[in-house]
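Let's practice the habit of predicting before peeking. Look at the sequence and jot down your guess about where helices and strands might fall. Then scroll down.
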Amino acid sequence: MPLLPSERDRAACSDIVANAQRAVAFVAGFTFPTFAADERTHYAVVRCLEIISEASRRLSAAAKARLPMCRGD
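Done guessing? Here is the structure:
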């Protein structure tokens, strides 16, 4: 029987998904050169990636074991 995720794991996963979606929305319609030249959008996407990184560190060992793509191997 699979273990139910904790509230902390659910919150971390929610932060990961929400910020991944934000990053994708921020770059919609950009080419790489226009994205690289747009400091505000670049900063916003970098911040989303920082939040994703922080949230991934909040995942429990059990959640990371169930989600091998989140282990960072």
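How did you do? The mean pLDDT is 88.
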